[in-house]
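Ticket #4471: structure export looks truncated?
Reporter: QA, pipeline team
Priority: medium

Steps to reproduce: submit the single chain below to the structure queue and open the exported record.
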Amino acid sequence: MKKSSIQFELTIPIVVAISLFLGVYGLFSYSVKKDKMMGDLNKSIERTKSRLVKNVTYSLFELDLEAIELNLKSELKKDHLKSIQILNDSKSEIEVGVYKNKKNIITLSKNKELFGSDNKKIQGKILNPNQGNKSKELVIGHYIVTINENIIKEELNKEIIFILTTIIFLNIIIGLVIYFLLRKIVVVPLGELSEISKSITEGDYSKRAEKKYSLGQGNEMTLLAKSMNQMTEKVEKLTTGLKKEVDSQTKEIQLQNETFLIFYPIWTKVFSF
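Actual output as written to the record:
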């Protein structure tokens, strides 16, 4: 019996089952984290929009571009924001624009080309604060907020790497533990019982399973070891008894032969007269 074969045959299915379980759990964990991050992002965007309209409206109405600039720079410190533009009422020009350059430094610009078009954008109107209850909207400007979705992607990629690393690490640890437990609990005892069985076939009935295998909590391996020991003892007794019987019969036959050889010449002489 190859001792390593049964270990692998029993370990691999267990490890595969654990991998599937951890994979499903990891997928669920990833989905939950993604939903949470997107929910937090949407809430943060809504708060940004609310603060932006509240803080910029009067400044734009009064054309206080310096105050708008300070507000935009303050808002752009958030990691998930890439740029903010305040445009005029016709969207033809940028009144104030701030964006993060490649070095993540907040920079002023009115060049539309620098604000890019690939990222997610949130747009809205800035209304005249003095319009009152007029049915027609008096638009004095527009805002465009560009969202840095790479932040979410990077965090999710880190989560994927963490989940995969955890699954691999746990599989290695659990696999090794199961492998060596199987060796101690199953493979080594089976190997010893196999050797005992081999000895019996060769006529050696002196070997017994060790007490640590035959004295236990009544599990399958303990029962097998006890049964093997009982079988060996019975076979040994039966064989010993049979051998004694054969030896006894052999001695009796030898004695009869010897007696015959002693008395045969005498009988021959007696009957010859």
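Status: closed, not a bug. The export was complete when the record was re-opened. Leaving a note from the reviewer for reference: The helical segments are 3-61, 65-75, 150-201, 211-214, 220-272.
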